[in-house]
């Protein structure tokens, strides 16, 4: 069995008419509030297709997508290509660059056997994406996957492709730098396809879109729907960042009783001291607690056998938050924001320990799917860099 991740004929903005910065939007699940309003002021912004509004939103998205194709807002490339994307950003005070490639990922059983999902999905999100894909007949936004690239060969090929002039450059809605290249040299695309065929892919983001893509193909077997738009990044890439997702919850009597039973508590001075203490902890289950003015390091109580995955978020979900409705949990990727939210609302923050991509792979191989919001690969990959209509890539 091999991983099929092929070059494809992309449909993209005419960047002379719509600059990259005006075209892209975040994935559907993070668009809300003022950001949503701001994006919708751009008449040709991808948000109108990625997250349509109105009485019949999915039909509106399909109609608009067709009109953009007809009027030249979107243009189709003549030959199959891989699309290389560079994102420039800061995280924890460090300037970083991440490089990945957009490809058409097979949905066949052979490829599926080499794709590792790591988080459970919600039916609400899947229904929304099902309606969109049926209406638009295209992949509007990619899933995000990580491959091992043990020799670093693919990372070097992607780096070499960036020596050419970019097809477009700009910034996303969060101000992060973006550059886009099209790679259609048959010798290069054949080598990329060959190297990717040997890989096993870990889904970093887009579990709902992957599940919907597979279900759509299996139910319709329509031409073009046998593949899915995917953004693929080498684990060797120095800009690959994965962050824990911290929890803010109501400090109910039941939850406090559970914490007292399952954890040993060691008070620490402040959040900085807590983060330093977490970094020193060998236990993958160590976590921090911010409760009003109090800050503490929590470790499993004596005799705790952990969980099969040996992954901190899984232990937290099973041992501490099992009785808490997931909809009552707020999620944060920055420990300071989580702490500030807990103090502002009178709730408690549970601060998770850092982990690596290798830790995620091992957890999935041991125990299968992890709880929702277990990981956060930063930054998200924008929607609107390249679309993949089914009729262009049969």
Describe the model.
There is one protein chain. The chain is an alpha+beta fold. It is built from 14 helices and 21 strands. It has helices at residues 20-23, 33-40, 47-50, 57-71, 109-112, 123-136, 153-161, 186-196, 207-220, 253-262, 271-280, 312-320, 335-345, 357-367; strands at residues 5-6, 11-13, 74-76, 82-91, 94-106, 115-116, 138-139, 143-147, 168-171, 177-183, 201-205, 227-234, 241-244, 246-249, 263-267, 287-291, 294-300, 330-332, 348-352, 375-378, 388-389. Strands 1, 4, 5, 6, 8, 9, 10, 11 and 12 form a nine-stranded mixed beta sheet that branches. It has a six-stranded antiparallel beta sheet with strand order 15-17-16-19-14-18. Helix 4 packs parallel to helix 6 (123-136) and helix 6 packs across helix 9. It is globular.
What distinguishing features does this structure have?
single chain; about 400 residues; alpha+beta; Conserved hypothetical protein from pyrococcus furiosus pfu- 392566-001, ParB domain; nine-stranded mixed beta sheet; about 35% helix
Write the layout of secondary structure elements.
Elements: E1 5-6, E2 11-13, H1 20-23, H2 33-40, H3 47-50, H4 57-71, E3 74-76, E4 82-91, E5 94-106, H5 109-112, E6 115-116, H6 123-136, E7 138-139, E8 143-147, H7 153-161, E9 168-171, E10 177-183, H8 186-196, E11 201-205, H9 207-220, E12 227-234, E13 241-244, E14 246-249, H10 253-262, E15 263-267, H11 271-280, E16 287-291, E17 294-300, H12 312-320, E18 330-332, H13 335-345, E19 348-352, H14 357-367, E20 375-378, E21 388-389
Helix pairs in contact: 4-6, 6-9
């Amino acid at each position: 069995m091999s991983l099929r991740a092929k070059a494809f004929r992309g449909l993209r903005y005419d960047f002379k008419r719509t600059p990259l910065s005006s075209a892209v939007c975040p994935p559907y699940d993070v668009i809300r509030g003022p950001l949503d309003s701001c994006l919708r002021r751009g008449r040709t912004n991808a948000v109108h297709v990625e997250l349509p509004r109105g009485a019949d939103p999915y039909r509106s998205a399909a109609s608009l997508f067709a009109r953009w194709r007809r009027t030249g807002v979107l243009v189709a490339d003549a030959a199959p290509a891989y699309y290389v994307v560079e994102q420039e950003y800061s995280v924890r005070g460090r300037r970083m660059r991440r490089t990945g490639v957009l490809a058409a990922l097979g949905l066949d059983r052979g490829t599926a056997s080499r794709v590792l999902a790591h988080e459970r999905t919600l039916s609400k999100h899947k229904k929304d994406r099902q309606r969109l894909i049926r209406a638009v007949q295209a992949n509007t936004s990619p899933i995000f996957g990580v491959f091992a690239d043990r020799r670093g060969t693919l990372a070097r090929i992607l780096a070499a492709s960036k020596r050419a002039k970019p097809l477009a450059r700009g910034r996303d809605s969060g101000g992060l730098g973006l550059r886009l290249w099209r790679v259609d040299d048959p010798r290069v695309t054949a080598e990329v396809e060959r190297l990717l065929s040997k890989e096993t892919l870990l889904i970093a983001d887009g579990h709902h879109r992957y599940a919907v893509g597979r279900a759509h193909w299996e139910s319709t077997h329509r031409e073009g729907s046998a593949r899915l738009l995917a953004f693929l990044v080498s684990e060797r890439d120095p800009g690959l960042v994965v962050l824990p997702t911290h929890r803010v919850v109501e400090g109910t009597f039941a939850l406090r009783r559970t914490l007292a039973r399952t954890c040993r508590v060691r008070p620490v001075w402040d959040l900085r001291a807590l983060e330093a203490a977490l970094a020193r902890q060998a236990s993958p289950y160590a976590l921090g607690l911010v409760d009003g003015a109090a800050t503490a390091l929590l470790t499993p109580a004596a005799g705790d056998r952990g969980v099969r995955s040996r992954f901190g978020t899984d232990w937290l979900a099973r041992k501490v938050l099992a009785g808490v409705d997931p909809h009552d949990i707020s999620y944060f990727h920055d420990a300071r924001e989580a702490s500030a939210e807990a103090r502002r609302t009178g709730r408690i923050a549970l601060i998770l320990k850092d982990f690596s991509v290798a830790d995620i792979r091992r957890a999935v191989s041991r125990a299968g799917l992890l709880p929702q919001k277990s990981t956060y690969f930063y930054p998200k990959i924008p929607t609107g860099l390249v679309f993949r209509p089914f009729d262009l890539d049969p």
